[in-house]
Amino acid sequence: MSQEDYKHSDITRKIIGAAMQVHKVLGSGFQEVIYQRALAIELTKRGIAFAREVDMPIFYDNQQIGTRRVDFLVEDKVMVELKALTKLEDVHLAQAINYLEAYRLEVGLLLNFGAKSLEPRRVINSKIMQTSSA
Q: Of 50, 75, 109, 122, which one is least surrounded by beta carbons within 10 A?
């Protein structure tokens, strides 16, 4: 499967492009909130529809049990979580996947601005992907 075949790859490609521009200008070493503000400016400049710091419901057994604030929800389809760490760990990827499952979204991006180069990671909610492709 090529990258073009991934669900919402057109949106994720645009988000990663905007994030790369932010990282190119700011580099690493800032707090997460600085990258969040800069990415909001860059997404707006590029005409990409998003909501920032959205309270998303968390479900268990089809019942809402709380909320969690997502950094960005882009075009109501792609969750974007930002990190500013020297190195992403497996726990960060697991957390992003758990958020997708809790939010009932299919696709997300985990963007790490803390490394020397931007580290974009695409995350998939395989539970939804399996049921929607069946």
A: 75
